[in-house]
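ok so for the tutorial part 2 we go from a plain amino acid sequence to predicted structure tokens. step 1 is just haveing the sequence, like this:
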Amino acid sequence: MAAIISPAKINSNGHSTTNGKANGAAATPRLSGKTNGRAMTIKPTYVRDPHPIDFPWKIKWNADTCIRCGSCVATCTFGAIQPRLQKQAQSLSIGNLPKPVDVSEVIMGIKQVHDPKHFCRGCTMCEKVCPTNSIRPVQNPHNRFPLVARQGGSPIKRGGRGHHMPIRVLDYVKVGRISQMTDPSLDAARHTFDLLTPFGRGLPADELPLKMENGKLVAGGWMPPMRWIYPIIIGDMSVGALSWRMWEALALAIAYLNEECGLPVRMSSGEGGMPERLLKSEYLKYFIIQIASGHFGWNRIIKAMPEMVADPAAILIKIGQGAKPGDGGLLPAEKVAPHISAIRGVPKADLLSPPNHQGLYSIEESVQKMFLSMNAAFKFRVPVAIKVAASSTSVSVFNNLVRDPYHIVGGFFLDGIQGGTGAAHEVSMDHTGHPILSKLRDCYLDAVTQGRQGHIPLFVGGGFGDTGDLAADAFKAICLGANGVFSAKIFLQLAGCVGNEQGRCNACNTGHCPVGITTQDPRLVARLDVDAAAQNIVDYFLSVDVELKKLMAPIGNSTLPVGRSDALVAMNKSIADRLQIAYAC
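step 2 — the prediction. this is what the tokens look like for a chain of 585 residues:
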């Protein structure tokens, strides 16, 4: 076929014309020609006419093996595939002297939806339920989704994993000091280890209100509350972000770890409060109650205080989040179920938290107002900590809190760029933030310079456990100066989340979680097996406990090696210089 481009002309309005017809500013160029005596017009695809090849995932479907059971369409929560009639043509040889004959038939097929609002997330649920393995999503590296997804003037929103860093610094850091002939190492299987870390204000020896009476050491005044907990905390996930069955699974796992396994694991609630049953149960002592900038759910917590049978493990005041620092929290309207509306006291609408606590204009005010009020609410029995996003100003914030003259700052949580989030604008997740290890090291070394290390515990989060090795990541962070780490998404993955760091699923913001973890849709929530999820979380913590001991034993530590950077080496010179640890090649 010889296609001829029609000559273009310019009319009096300045617009190009084809065959004497004005196209206007938005005219569609066409290729004209003839084939088999019929006129033909070719129309190229534009941004506003998306095709599955424009999406991050493409659906591969095998018509020959598919039995048309409809399981894949029924299980897809995103509406990314649908059944459609389609014409199937084939050539057959007929007669004694084979002569190709073209025949066709209409069959029921599976087609990928072209609508950017219903694009495939690659969750693989269709592949898992297909009895003949006839369908599967395939990642498309040549997609142009950032263009087609912004139709209508709406920024792209994403949930799940946050940033995609070029390198993972923790993978370049190894445990390089192994005690052998110089210092005796320990036997991880037989030695007794103390894996507890403090949560609460620590006083220097000369400020402890202790005195001797009748040969005994007794307290002679008020001491800041302190809890001894496991060094790995389950990070912030709010009652609106998770389904009620996922909350049950987490509560079951934490209670079992504490009461049957002897591991004092704690979990932090996100903004929006906690399930009311949990607030009024004895299991509240295993949970950290968070109050964030939107104050959502705090009225419900205050009203429940007279009926609380136990104090919470701590109070956490969230100023910022590492995955989207400087941007407020977001709970999309799709996830605001009736019980979420009741808890937060709002209608079914997008719930946007302000990017900072209104009325707090300095670090000093945060100490005086927030910390004093939260301490007073629980009569100074509960540690009160603060959580901020890692940034260039993190050390300044940490220094002011360390110098707190009231001794009421019970902890400092520092969240890094690689942390996940249930929902945020993609531009915030991909282009704001600060890596966590360098800020952890800066805060710790600055406290050491002042002789104030250990005054308030330092917990860090943001990407820990991304590769599944949470024990190794936590151990390295502790050696760099952390008292512990907090991580969240890995525990959702243990419960059945199919998201990963390469862009699979990560649609927590849509309310259509295919496994019932981050949705409030009763039909989808029913997919989650509470007992199995809790069992997986318990098993993982037990494995982490053994792995931490396996890392502590070779360096000769029976307690957490906080600040023992001499135990680490870096296989990258820049990383070694920045973290001030030994370089090995």
